Each structure stands twice: as structure tokens, then as C-alpha cells.
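During the second year of the project, the team shifted from modelling isolated chains to modelling whole assemblies. The rationale, set out in the original proposal, was that interfaces cannot be judged from single-chain predictions alone. As a representative example for this report, we include one of the complexes processed in the last quarter. Its constituent sequences, exactly as entered into the pipeline, are reproduced here:
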Amino acid sequence: MTGLGAVMASLPALLADQSRLSEFLGFTVFGIVLAAIYFIAASGLVVTYTTSGMFNFAHGAVGMIGAFTYWQLVVSWGWPVVPSLLIILLVIAPLLGVFIERVVMRGLQGVSEVTRTVVSIALLFSLIRVAPMIWGSKNTYKVPAFFAGNSVEIAGVGVTYHQLVTIAIAIGVAVFLRWLLFLTRLGVAMRAVVDSRPLSRLNGARPERTSAASWALGSSLAALAGILVAERIVFDVVALTFLVVNAYAAAVVGRLTSLTRTFVGAVVLALVQSYGQGYLQENPAWLPKDLDVVNTVSTAVPVVLLLVVLLLIPQARLRAAGIQRSREAVPHPKIRLTLIGVGSLVAVVALVSLVMGGDDRITWSKGLALAIIMLSLVPLTGYGGQISLAQMSFAGLGAYAVATWGDGSPVGLLAAVVIAAAAGVLVALPALRLSGIYLALATLAFAYFVEKVVFPQRLLFPTATKPVKRLNLFGLSLDDDRAYMVFLAVVFGLLTVGIVLLRLGPFGRRLQAMKDSPAACATLGLNLTRTKLQVFVLSSAIAGLGGGLYAGVGKAANTIDYSALQNLPVLLMAVAGGVALCSGALVGGLLLASFGLGAKSIPSIEVLGVDSKTFFTNLFALAPGLIGIALGRNPNGIVAGMSEWARAKYDARFGAGADDEVDLDRLPRLPLEPVLDVEHMGLFRAFSADEVAAIDAVVRVDVGKEMAHAAP
Amino acid sequence: MPLLDAKEVSVRFGGHMALLDVTMSVEPGRITGLIGPNGAGKTTLFNVMTGLQDPVRGRVLMNGIDVTGSPPHERSQRGMARTFQRLELFGSLTAYENLQVAAEIKRMWGGGTSVPADERVESAIELIGMRPFVHKRADVLTTGQARLVELGRALVTRPKVLLLDEPASGLDADETEYFGTILKGLAKAGMGILIVEHDVPLVMKLCSQIFVLDFGQMIASGPPAAIQGNQRVIEAYLGAPAGSGA
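Output from the structure prediction step:
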């Protein structure tokens, strides 16, 4: 915002100078074209959200797939531009959208919003991993501009045909969407399905079909944005995905529902970014010389703007939603079992560490450290129902703290906890007043910010890797890998006991209550924002500690380990393990570490022109995404699934009901039948005089007498 | 002084005025009723008073202090509690824990009480007779039991004013009777109670003051005797009289 303000203030001076004027106009044109692309991307997001009620985190990745397909057809196969575009926008992208809706999203009825969001994040991750399997992992892709080489001059500024086409397409999209959503039968049906699926069905709409149509449309818009934006850069999978993700900020300005406000958001976002990039060529005088602002500002603008917008959005109204039943079980941990489990874990790790080879020890130690980072999600997501996509970034800050102030003393870990918790406050504060999806977005933005702005600072990280000295506790050195592995198991155990005690105490009950009914909690006097902030700070502190310990495993803090993308498998595997259980975090952490081990152990054999090692490495990299998508089928996670299976075996052997006590957590938790609550839908009307007379003739009620009879 | 005042409250949903200049009050030691046909705006008015909905115009006062615009938890801390028409229990907790959470929240903001949370919970359980199902999980309770748990949960916060949104819906005759007895006892102890109810005979029996909403406007108020003879109220419930009269 300040960038725009500064430009406005210096406008008269700019206009006086011809060369500076054309420079200004150049940045403006650049900004408007970027705004057009952001609007197209964001409008696709808004269309899917308003017509399916789901925020599609994979939107950016769908745009990336669209751009790569365009590269395949036009550059690699040399097809003409127009037929290629039509095939992608009218066939391939819509089919991808329908596939996502049919295969992934439709199975998500009766699961919580957390699970739905996680599945869409799993899809984002999967697409990012699938693309390099098809197109390789080079980062030198380039597509030609439309009408390359042609441009016109407007007010002394060269505007390419590609830029003009982009602007025209955005205007076309705006007009088309307005017409579709408000003036056509399909559009009205799309909006009706979100308002009430059962009621729209009763009125003859076919929710499945309209839902599929909106996903197809959203997918096409993502692909279109991806293709338009790809022309500007030499791209790779992740960069292109996040370029479309930038547009999420514009959609947030429209509060994910208003196309008009989304348009305004896109224009402001793009202009600020363009002027920022254009005019901020060197550090302002008040900033330290060795802080790199110039190179990082262009990537940071959308992210910073997203956080600013979240601060400005008014608080959402709390809604009473009735008792929610979902397919998800709510485990009730028992302290005795927890202590037995933790004791066994430490004993097993101590034994196993003795027989393990050096490399394996490092891998499983990483698994334990990842499990500690995933533990941070148990109170936040498992108990409190909030999603964070920045746990690995908090871990990165923790790793930095240990590398900088550790030197073998516990001060480093203490600093890790404090810094991560402080960062947690900064990220969460704007988003916590709002609903869960905004916290997920804010944390994703923060993760991107850490990767693009914090980590590249040479002031903080002179090289991408910083050596870490392991803890030396009261003369007891953990330099030996075996000792460190056991130490990690002990830390995991202590944290587990702490988290279980927290769950069984007042704070845990409050978190569970807040997840079940925020409205009831508020009317009982609970400050929801403060409660969410408390659990978020706790969670980011645990993640920071886990990051410090993770860095200790390899004796180095490597910024690549904590990139924005690394946050996704951490969340996915934590939820896949079972995010309401500490044992779920353990399973998730160990599994995630084992994927790397699995990929390493595959021999390299060529089968049908494909190298087996490459194939399995890709497959293991994709695994968290596929497992995350499968959550729609079993939202309770692996640990709960296994105990269910063991239970069934036990019952088969000893007969059902071998235990006398009925365990309520095991009762089938089916989604409630949708109830048509006519009054809540605002469908009411007074009877006409004729209707009243007709009713009277049948029932002969005298209201006055009825009331008199009823009076005390 | 009334415990709770709504003064000229208006609420707009898009182009529809859900409430238009509605004024009403709840006095201590009395049960006040709010009735009206479906869609009259009863729940909306409830939400405005508890802070779940902001009015476009008008004010809400508690004990003469303006609380318009303050969030629900602050109103609760001033002594307001409510139940919900569509039950808002903590489904994954037991009935006991539902009350326990409320008592613990109350303890967090003090309210000048030294009674331990568990003691409050126990006394509420005795008062409303929820002992038989106290260890059942809330999402497997019958509607009647669930309404009692919601009442119990509201009561452990020791409210000065209690707002009940259709407490009798889903209850059988015996349960309704029982519920009414509890409410009368609470009013006798000085609590101000506001109930929104479809069950007109129940409202007539319990309330000393009744307000009637129709199409977002307050069309009548007064003691039960005055309300049951009110022509506008009768029209609101059965539509305008036909030529021959209703």
C-alpha cells in the first residue's frame, strides 16, 4: 500500500518529466496486464468456492498443468496456437476439473472442513509432484507470446499484442461470468447448490451435475491464467504454481465470493507489485545495506498484501450450525496407556539404535524429529480444528536459531521455541478472527514469505547451510548418533505426555468445545480469538523446537529442508497418521522419512525405457499427496484405522462385546440426514384470506378460544 | 431497571428488513415470552441481543449499559446466557463435560465467584435432573435430554438473564411440563428469562409479559390476557380474516 501511496504523492513531479512519465506508464501497463491475469486466476477460485463451497488449494497447480500442456502442444509438438488453446480450455482442463470433482471431492461428504481442506492441499501437492514425472524437472520452459513481435504504441509506451489480448480476455471472462452466474439457468443452479444442496435437489436441480460444471469452469479459468502468465517467465513447476497462488490474495479481497471486489483486489495487487518492482531499485536509506529488499520485494508483495487484507476484513459473523456429526471419531486419550506407549517407544528406539546402520539411524532420527514437528499439529488441528501450512517454516526458524545461538547449549533450543512462537503470533493474529480457511491461507503466505524473503538474506544465512552443534546437556554429549536418536524419542515422549495431559485438562476441553461449536463457546463467555491464538502459539513453539532438533540430526540447518513446499507433506502425513493422536504424528513422521529411504534403496534398472530408480523416487515423492487424497475415504487416519482393524480381529476371535462397557467413541458416526429447515431458509408466507377460509372450513379452529383455554 | 433492553433494533438481510425498529425488554424475576409466526424475526432478534448478529440500527442494553457491537463473549461475561433452537452442544464431549467446560470458562473470567467448577456442575445436574445421562456423549442424547444439557450449560455460568430459543421444540408433554417447572423456579430466584416459543399454550402459562413479532415488527406486547384477545395477533397467526371472519 505504501508503495502505491508514494507513487501517488510523486505523481505531479513524474508527469512533468517526459521520460519518467513514460516509465510510469510502462509500469502501469505492466501492472494492468498482471491484474488481468490475477483476475482470471482469482475468478476461477471464486467460481469454485461459490458454487461448490470448497476453497480449492490446487487451483494454482491446475494452472501450472494447463501451462505445461500448452507448452507440450505448441512448443514441443509444434501445433498451432488457437486449436491448442481450444483443446486445453474446452477439453483437457474441464475434464481435469470434472475428474477432480468426481474422484476426489465427491467422497468428502460427512467429513469436517479440516479434512476437506487437507484433501485439496493433497491434490495441490500431488499435481506438483506429477508434473515433473511427465515433463521432467528442468526449469527452462518457455512459451511464445501471442502474435510475438507485434506491438502498438499507446501514449509513448509499447504495448505488445500479447498484453492487449490478455486484457481483452480478462474483460471477456468478467462479462461471461456475470452473464453465466446471474442470467443463465446453469449459473443460478450453481449458486443454489451451495445455498442448500437438498433444497436445490427438491427443486429439480441436479447438484452433481452443476457441481461438476463449476469445477470444469474453475479448472479452465486456472489453465487460462497459467497459460497467460507462463509467457512472462522461464518457468518450472513450483514457480508457476506459486505465480497463480499469488492471485489468491485478490480472491481474499473479494472474500472469496464477490467477483467485483476480486477485480478491485487484482488491480491493486498487480499495480502495487508492478510499481514496487519498478521503482524499488535500491534499498531505502533507513534499511541496513546488507538486507536484500530489492530482489525479494517482487515475490513478497502478494504475500504481504494478503496479510494486510486479512487484517482489514471485518470479522465473520458466528453462525449457529446445529450439532455437527461427521465420519470422524474423536479419540479420548488415556494417560496410563500413553505412559505405557511412550515407555515402549523409548525402549524400542534404544534397542533398535544399537543394531541399526549409520545411514538408517540418520533417516529414522529424521523421522522422529519430523514426528515432533507433526506433534505441533495435534493440539492445533486435531483438537482445535485449525489448519497451518507453515509448521515446517516455523521449524526452519527454529533450525536457524539453534545454528546461530546453540553452540551445544540449551539456549539454542530455547531461542528456537521463542522465535517460532513470536512468528506464530505475527502470522496468526490477522487470520484468527476469521474462519479456518483464512488461517490456512495466511500460513501458506507466511511459508512462501520465509522461503523467498527471510531465507535468502545473506545477513541471516551467509550460505544456504549453517552448521549446527548438537546439544550438550550437563556434560552429557549427544554427538553420537545413537544417543541423539534416543534423545529424540525421549523428547517426543515428554511432549506426548504433555499434550495428552493438556487434552484431558480444561484447555483441551475448551479446544474440543471450540471445534464442536464456536457459537456456543462465545455465548458462554469464551474469547475465541484468544483461545485460537494460544493454541497457535503453542503449536508454532513445538514446531520451532522440532526444527531445532531436526537440524541437529544432520548437524546442519539447510534452508531447502524448510521451503514452502516442504510444509505440505508435513501436514498431509500428520493428518494421514491421525492428527488427533500423538501416535498418529509418530506414524506420519516415520512414514515421511521412510519414503526417502525407500527411494534410495531401489536399484536402477531400465524397464520399457523408464529408469526404475527415477520412477520409484518420483512415486515416493508423490506418496504423501496420494495418501492425503485417500483421507476422504478414511478421515480418521492410519492409527485409528489399524486399531479398528485390530478390534475387529479381537471381536471375531472372542466374540463381539467381549468388553462389557460400550465405548461411545466406537459407535458408528454417520452424517445426519440433511434436515430441511424451512424457516431457516427464509421460505415463509402468510396464507391468503381464501386459504385461511379453506383451512377453517376443514379444521374449525377458534384461535381466541384456544388461547383463552391455554391461559393459566 | 430491565436486565436486558432492545431499543429500536433493525436488521437488514440484503433487501429484506428482518427486523424494523423493534423494542422490548426483559425484567428480573419474570419470564418474558417472544412469539410470532415462522419467519417473524424471533431468532434474529435473539441473535442481536446475544451479539451473534449486528443490527443496522438500534441499541442493546444490559442493566442500562450499552453493549451494542460488543462480542458475544463479553455479553456472557456481563451475565447473559442462551440456548439454541438448533442444538449447539459440544457433540464430542459428554453431557458432564459440556457443563464442565462452561463452568471452567466462567472461572477464567472470574465473575467474583469462589465456587469450584465441579461443584457448580454438580448443583446444576441436581437442579435439572440430568444425572441419568450425565456420562453419555452429547451427540447421542435425545432431543429432550439435549435441551436439558443446554439449559444446564447456560446455568453453570450463573447468568442474570437467560435466553431460551424454542426450548420445548422436540419435547413431549411431560418433558415440557418439567422444563416449565424448572424455569418458574429460576425466575422465582430472581433470574430474568426470555423464551422464544412456538408452543403458544406453554408461553401463555409461563410468561407474565409477552411480545409478539410479525414480519419483523413488534405488533403487540402485554400480559397473556391482553395478547390472546388481540386482533392483530390472531391475524398474524392465521392470516388476514376472510370476508366471513376467521
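The two ends of chain B are 40 Å apart (CA to CA). The CA atoms of residues 180 and 206 of chain B lie 7 Å apart.
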